[in-house]
Structure formats: C-alpha cells, structure tokens
Design goal:
By secondary structure, this protein is α+β, with helices and mostly antiparallel strands. The protein is about 45% helix and about 15% strand. A hairpin with a 2-residue loop joins β8 and β9. The longest helix is centred in the last third of the chain and has 33 residues.
C-alpha cells in the first residue's frame, strides 16, 4: 500500500486538480457539501478596519488563505483558523476566545509584526457581535493591504520550509546520504519513524537494530519528499475513495502493471478518483457486492473505462483518533476475478430467487437476498454495545471468507456451517410464531452456501459444481440439482428426516396452533444418537395420527404416507449404519435445510394444485 500511495502521489502531484493535496497548506472543508464562509479582518497600513468582512469560501483560493490545522498543542504558522459554531451563546463566546488565543500564539511564536495586541482585542469584540449560522462552516483569516497571506511569498515560504508537522518522523531518527526505502533512490536525508497508513515504526517496541531509537531509520528510511507525497496521497485517497462498512471503512485502490507508461497511469488514476472509483465496470460491481446499501454514484463521469491496466487492492480499516488500523488487505486482484465473482453472484441470485421469496402461506411478501459481504457479515459479526453505542464486532473468520472469495482459496466448511447455525439456532429457540425468521435464516444461508460452492471454494465431495439452474421446488428436482448436499448417506438421512419432521410440525400447527414435537429437536443441536431418537418418536407420532379420522387435521393421507415411506428408505438404514464421519454441525445443518425445504415443497405443491383447479374450471 505504501508503494501504491507513493506512485499515486508522484503522478497526481503534477495535476492541477490535486496539487493542493501535496502542498503544505490544505482545504479546510474538503468534504463539506454545505455553505462555507470566510470571516476576514482587514488591516491597511497598520490600521484595523472597523468592520469584519464575510465572504463566500472559494476552494480555488486555498493557496491564498494558507490554512493548515495545527496538531495537538502546535501553533498555526499564520492566523488562518477554524471558527467553530456552538449551540449556545455561552459556548459560542468560549469558541471565539479559544480561536483568539490561537491568533495570539501564532503572532507571538512566529514574531509576526502586522498586528498589535490591542487590535486582536478589537477583533474579538467584533466577532462577539457577528451573527453566526450553525448550518455554515466558518474560516477566519487576516488580509494585509488587500492581500491574503498566500499572496505574499514571505508567508508561503513559512509553509514551504516548515518541517514541524513531520517532527515525529525525524526528531529522534534521521540520517544523511542514504537510500530511500520507498523511491529506492539515494537521497541527502532520510527520516526513520514514518508511520503513514499504520506502518508502525515510531514506537520503541517496533524499533530494530538493538532497539536503539536513533537507528530505527535503518528499518524503514524515507526521504522528506517521499513523506510529503505519501501524506498528500493518503489524504486524497481516503477523501475520494473511502466508503463505510458497518463501523469500518474500506477502499479499492488501483495498482499499475510495471509496463504501464506514466502518462496512461496518470490519466487512469485521475479518472478513477474523479469518479470516486466507479470509472470501471468491474469496480462498480464490486462496490455493490461489498455493500448494496452504498449505492454507486457515477453521475460525475458517465463513461466507463474499457481498459484496466491494473491490479486492485482492497483495504478494510478502522480509524481511531490518530490510529489507522488495517483489518484486511487483499492485494493484486485482477479485474477478471472481480468479474468472475459478480458472474457467480448474479447466477446464484437468479437461480435461487425461489428460496428468498415467501417462506409461509401467511407471509406473502418477497424478500430477495442480495449476495454481498454485507449479507455474509450477518453470520460473522455481532452488534454489541460499547460505551452505550452500537458497534459491529467482526469475527476473524469473516476476513478469511473475504480472502477466500478474492484469492480463490479453500474455505473451512465446518467453520462456515457453524457460523450459519448460530443465528438459525437462536431463531429456532425463540420459537417465532410465524416460523418466518428461522426459515429465512436457513434459506438465505443455503443460498450463500451455493455461492461459495459455485466459486469452487469447497465441495461436499470431489464433484465440480455445474452451472446453477433455477432451483426446483419439487422434491425430485431439488434432489437432482444438489448432489453435493445429498451424496453422503448420513447427510441425506438428516436432510430427509428434517423433511419428515416439518410435515409433522405442519400437522400439529394446524391442529394445536402449536408444535409440541419441537421439544424433541434439542434446539437443532443434533448428533447421530439424537437423530435416531427423533426418528423413533416421529414414527410413533405418525402412527398415532394415522388412526385419527379423515377430517382430523392431524390425519395423514395416502399420498403423504407414500412420501414418508419413500423418505424412510433413506433414513432408517443410514442411521442404523451411521459412523462418526460427520460432525454435529453438518448433521444439524442438513436437518435444518430439510425442514426449510419441506416447507418450500409444500407451498409449491399447494400452488400447483390451485393452478390445476383454475385451469380445470368449476366441476359440474
């Protein structure tokens, strides 16, 4: 990432649109979309004019205002400062006092002679009388004989020659006549404690060469010019490309092939930034895959780049005050991999839309699943309270899943199913009256499982996945389409037993308005012995209901008994001869999928029967 930032800085610093990011002054309102104004105190021939001027902030005049926010207790080189608005009069007066104090510090520390202390008092009094609008951002500056600070080379030189913003980089570790670790060029000076983008070398514990802080430059020596390019590129990239992701942020950064000429790279990178990363179809689609809720806006640049002479890096990170913690870096991804992921995502969504529609006859609305990192994260993150605020706590396996998707690495199926089963069991234990939530969790997880399977990240057997077809909601069709699920005899037995249990639960729900048989399902935490017990109790209960009258809602009809008998041919022998080749997680998940699919089979059969009646018309 540091090398990518350096190259971006080297290329973009030459373009007029981005030069300000690589200069020692900054835009005070880089991302603010609302109104901004500049409050100006004019001094002519040493005299403070009686009125303060309020002007519209002009972003093209950044090099005239000469603003740079001082870090911590540092002092501004010139008195161009934020004036923060406050909700109450008392707090607003305190905000003005704080800003005026910074004016005095700047004048004193840098021995400016263009203003007297009494004139600063006058400015404070006039600021107190100035009506301020909380919806507007304000910048304060002083104009000398009609000229802003940036119009005078003397004040520009203060910024150009000042190295204090980088004092933590060079004060304790510097050397002369070395090779820069970023540009690979010999330079007259290097600094040794540069921590751009989380590369931690400024702390004693990260020093090398005997833990001598003065020698830490030997670990990562960086020239002053490279530092300034890194810092400018970092500000630019984070401002233009960073997007939110459930408490984290992420960005997609292009990295050029070595053979790409600088001119072509500059044009591509400028267009990429101008469009906020959406100038290529592959990146547009991957933004949507990461988080569909973050709509891609490419109205600023409607044309799409055809040629992508790049790899891409994806960074997930957190910013905590001054700390920049990279959670995951996925590097060197070719556009072809993006396209492959999106093609599989779209194919699976189309094929399995029948499983993301209604999950009961009472719940008729459709809730399509959009396969994305945002939907995958629901199984690998928890929403917790931290200091009274909601925060997503991500499990480490979530980042392994991202790695697997982009690097085509194998996934641990057991860990994946364990993550799926956690919310499924929670929903099952909650015993939602409509059974909506548990069925949605099972179905959606099954669709995600097919997504991973189609990417060939794992397989239940040695079989290669075939292109997905529209999911069949007739048992025979579904079984034929999913040999990966039903090849293993014990997994098949668990699936079919789940189907049988769902048939029984539907009878109980209709008769009792309850499902007493759920008590035997052990919260969907099942091993072979528990499956055998469930099968025995289920067989007994079905026998009991067979003796009920034909008008009893618990009664099993001949067609239903035939279906149960067919399922039993797969269940009984497999449970009798079962070994320990499958984990409880595998068995529990197969059982849960069987329950959810039987509900889908039932709904589809009712739909078919109704359609037949409609076609046949009323009977005589």
């Amino acid at each position: 990432m540091i090398k990518s930032l350096y190259i971006a800085g080297k290329l973009l610093a030459q373009l007029d649109d981005y030069k300000d990011y690589f200069r020692p002054w900054a835009n005070p309102f880089p991302t603010w979309q609302g109104a901004a104004q500049v409050i100006v105190a004019d001094i002519h021939d040493g005299q403070l004019l009686p009125e303060l001027s309020v002007e519209v902030f002009n972003p093209d005049w950044v090099d005239r205002y000469l603003f740079r926010e001082a870090k911590a207790n540092a002092t501004n080189l010139v008195p161009t400062l934020y004036l923060h608005t406050q909700p109450t009069t008392e707090k607003q007066l305190e905000s003005i006092r704080t800003m005026v104090k910074k004016i005095r510090q700047s004048i004193k520390n840098y021995q400016h002679d263009f203003i007297r202390d009494s004139q600063i008092d006058d400015i404070e009094q006039r600021l107190r009388l100035l009506p301020l609008d909380n919806a507007i951002k304000y910048l304060f500056t002083i104009r000398l004989n009609g000229r802003y600070f940036g119009d005078d080379e003397k004040y520009r030189a203060l910024f150009l020659n000042d190295q204090m913003p980088y004092a933590t980089y060079w004060r304790k570790s510097r050397a002369n006549n070395k090779v820069c670790a970023v540009s690979y060029e010999p330079v007259s000076e290097v600094w040794g404690r540069v921590n751009t983008l989380g590369f931690t070398v400024e702390k004693p514990a990260f020093s090398r060469n005997g833990f001598d802080g003065e020698d830490s430059y030997k670990m990562f020596p960086v020239s002053p010019d490279a530092v300034k390019r890194l810092e400018g590129a970092k500000r630019l990239i984070l401002e233009r490309l960073a997007r939110p992701f459930f408490g984290m942020k992420y960005l997609i950064m292009p990295r050029f092939f070595d053979t790409v000429p600088d001119e072509q790279a500059t044009q591509f990178l400028a267009r990429f930034l101008r469009s906020s990363g959406t100038a290529t179809a592959s990146v547009q689609s991957i933004y949507t895959f990461i988080n569909p809720a973050e709509a891609v806006d490419n109205t600023s640049d409607n044309s799409i780049v055809d040629s992508e002479p790049v790899y891409y890096d994806i960074f997930f990170y957190e910013e905590k005050q001054a700390q920049f913690a990279i959670k995951l870096q996925v590097s060197n991804i070719l556009p072809a991999r993006f396209k492959r992921v999106i093609a599989v995502k779209n194919a699976v969504e189309r094929s399995y839309q029948g499983l993301t529609g209604p999950v009961s006859l009472m719940q008729g609305r459709s809730e399509p699943l959009r396969i994305s990192l945002a939907s995958i994260k629901d199984y690998f993150a928890e929403l917790v309270k931290v200091k009274g605020k909601d925060k997503w706590l991500f499990h480490s396996f979530f980042f392994h899943v991202i790695d697997a998707i982009y690097y085509n690495q194998p996934l641990d199926r057991e860990q994946l199913l364990r993550a799926f089963m956690a919310p499924i069991r929670a929903a099952f234990k909650a015993n939602d009256a409509s059974a909506y939530l548990v069925n949605r969790q099972i179905r959606h997880s099954f669709v995600l499982l097919q997504f991973f399977y189609q990417l060939n990240l794992f397989s239940f057997s040695s079989m290669k996945p075939a292109m997905p077809q529209p999911v069949g909601l007739i048992p025979e069709t579904f079984e034929r389409q999913h040999p990966d699920l039903l090849t293993h005899p014990l997994r098949r037995a668990a699936f079919y037993l789940g189907c049988e249990v769902e048939l029984l639960l539907a009878k109980q729900k209709s008769f009792y308005r309850n499902q007493p048989f759920r008590q035997y399902l052990n919260g969907l935490n099942l091993d072979v012995d528990q499956l055998r017990k469930i099968h025995l109790k289920l067989t007994a209960k079905i026998g009991e209901y067979m003796d009920t009258g034909i008008n009893d809602k618990r009664h099993f009809y001949p067609a239903e008994l035939a279906r149960l008998a067919e399922l039993d041919t797969h269940i009984g022998p497999a449970l009798l001869l079962a070994d320990n080749s499958l984990s409880k997680t595998e068995l529990s998940y197969s059982f849960a999928v069987g329950m959810a699919m039987q509900k889908a089979f039932t709904i589809e059969q009712i739909r078919i029967n109704r359609l037949k009646k409609t076609v046949a018309g009323p009977t005589a």
